[in-house]
Amino acid sequence: MLSTSKQQKLFVALKNYRRQFLDRGLKELDESGTRLMINSFLSDVLGYKQLEEIKTEYMIKGTYADYVIQVNKTRHFLVEVKALSFELSEKHLRQTINYGANEGIEYALLTNGKSFEFYKIIFEKPISSRLIFTVDLSDANGLKIAMGYLQHLHKDSVIKNSFKPLWNKCEATDPYNIAGIICSEDVLKAIKKLIKNKYNEKCEDEVILSAVHKIVTDKMDPALIKPFKAARAKVKKEKKDEHDGSEKQIVIADQ
């Protein structure tokens, strides 16, 4: 993440971008005009150097991605731009993901200059993607929230591997992972204890799990809920204290 002072500079840059492009009523702007906006966004807002770090018309298997952001010879993410007059669609996303998959680039930003959708490409069979965040810079009230997300795309963050904690949080709060936690043994034990205390009833795991499934599987595929296993703690002994001869113990999470 950016420092507080750099976050403030980013927030000012976002306000300037919004004032320069989105407050002018350019609703019918075509794709070439929108790309001029994104040139400014990538350089003036996110801090990348023109030409050197912002690679335009990047060739991928006979076709061209709009931009690839490359710093220190590492391709961090690609950017696909659609006209400001278009709403971003599933078709646009498929095109963007295909570019990334064909080139082995894990992250992609899809934008129309107003809406920004950031994805991780999942290299499995079949290739898929996961939305990490979406922001709308035309919403003045949501600009601080947008800054909180977009700081991870700033050059100063990207070169420090900012995508890893961003993706980790996305995975941690994925509905299927949360469902797996709810269906875990630890949570079932807690529910059984609460039922015993309140209703003085003893329930089998299968009964409680069946009730939980009715809650978490309403719009979810139960087959995709992965069992959750909490990290186990293990004790590691340190050397004896030189002063009193006692041994210290530290608890380490066993992942």
Characterize the structure shown.
A 6-stranded mixed sheet has the order 1-2-3-4-5-6, sandwiched between helices. A two-stranded antiparallel sheet has the order 7-8. The chain has 9 helices and 8 strands. The model has no long low-confidence stretch (mean pLDDT 86). The protein is α+β, with helices and mostly antiparallel strands and 255 residues long. The protein has 2 domains: 4-172, tt1808, chain A; 175-234, no CATH class.
The helix content is: 40-55%
Q: Tell me the strand percentage band.
A: 15-25%
Number of domains: 2
Per CATH, what is the topology of the largest domain? tt1808, chain A
What is the total tally of β strands? 8
Q: Distance between the terminal alpha carbons, to the nearest Å? A: 25 Å
The largest pleated sheet is described as: 6 strands, mixed
- Provide a count of the helices: 9
